[in-house]
Q: What sequence folds into this?
């Protein structure tokens, strides 16, 4: 991007850059598919209408779920523009981008859960699938929740350092949207597993209900209290449907909801809340927000959560094994 813009190509340069990277992505995908599936051959003359019908049914459900998710952002902006003013749309845009970026950091790591759940379902290993689901959920609670809480706590000073004074409402958007996206992220394993075992219509149902609740509450509260009403509608819709999905998933899969609650790291959740509240009090009453202060506080939060987590027994044996493997992988990449 820098090369094309620096050379003065402008918009055409961005288009060319996108085309080049798309072509490289296709070439890389074809290369790795051939390498990983050397014995796989495609017969263009083989065709089955029954298989086509199943694929279309599956694809339509996923498409509708994704469409409902993608439609929320522009709908929220339209509601804000209708019942507030354009500056509030800008504040919301900052919050939406930050919350989406933070969620994607953890969402990318859940992609392998789709083929894994499909494979376990095909070989009828229900207990192993439940174990993978519980362990994945536990990892999200252990590592994603503390990260989200730290960003929520530091949202206001972060925006002040990043954009300057006068953007407090953008920080509020980050906090509200991160709270809703946190709940949504914590039930992402349920979404992915339902798609992996061939039941994407349930994910579509949840996405549709989320959009409907968001639309009704955002418009209703937007008329009454304006900007904050829309933010409350977005967060409430994500939180409510995420809690519903937890119970619905366990009922559909035949998993025990009690096991789910037992696997959750209660000590870890309490520790992350205490650390977040402590840093909030510290930065509100003692420290002056700056880039260095935010970096130091972020590093201190990670260190304090890790050390106290080991001392207080937050991490069990499997958690420690995963942490050690992750450290070994990062060390290998660094070398």
A:
């Amino acid at each position: 991007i820098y090369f094309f813009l620096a050379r003065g190509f402008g918009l055409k340069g961005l288009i060319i850059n996108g085309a080049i990277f798309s072509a490289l992505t296709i070439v890389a995908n074809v290369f790795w598919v051939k390498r990983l599936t050397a014995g796989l051959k495609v017969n263009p003359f083989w065709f089955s209408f029954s298989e086509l019908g199943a694929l279309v049914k599956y694809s339509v459900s996923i498409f509708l779920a994704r469409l409902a998710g993608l439609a929320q952002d522009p709908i929220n902006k339209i509601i804000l523009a209708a019942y507030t003013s354009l500056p509030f749309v800008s504040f919301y845009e900052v919050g939406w981008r930050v919350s989406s970026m933070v969620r994607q950091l953890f969402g990318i790591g859940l992609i392998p859960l789709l083929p894994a759940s499909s494979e376990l379902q095909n070989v009828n290993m229900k207990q192993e699938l439940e174990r993978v689901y519980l362990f994945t959920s536990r990892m999200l609670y252990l590592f994603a929740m503390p990260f989200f809480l730290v960003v929520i706590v530091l949202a206001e000073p972060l925006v002040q350092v990043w954009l300057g004074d006068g953007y407090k409402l953008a920080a509020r958007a980050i906090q509200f949207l991160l709270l809703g996206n946190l709940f949504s992220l914590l039930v992402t394993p349920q979404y992915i597993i339902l798609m992996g075992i061939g039941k994407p219509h349930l994910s579509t149902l949840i996405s549709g209900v989320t959009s409907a609740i968001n639309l009704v509450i955002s418009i209703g509260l937007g008329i009454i209290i304006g900007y904050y009403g829309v933010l409350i509608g977005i967060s409430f819709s994500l939180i409510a449907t995420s809690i519903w999905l937890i119970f619905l998933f366990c009922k559909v899969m035949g998993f025990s909801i009690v096991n789910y609650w037992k696997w959750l790291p209660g000590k870890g959740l309490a520790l992350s809340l205490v650390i977040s509240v402590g840093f909030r009090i510290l930065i509100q009453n003692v420290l002056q927000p700056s880039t260095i202060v935010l970096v130091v506080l972020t590093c201190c939060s990670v260190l304090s959560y890790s050390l106290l987590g080991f001392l207080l027994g937050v991490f069990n044996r499997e958690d420690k094994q995963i942490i050690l493997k992750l450290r070994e992988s990062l060390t290998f990449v660094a070398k």
Observations:
- The mean pLDDT is 81.
- The longest helix spans residues 49-83.
- The radius of gyration is 23 Å.
- The CA atoms of residues 83 and 224 lie 9 Å apart.
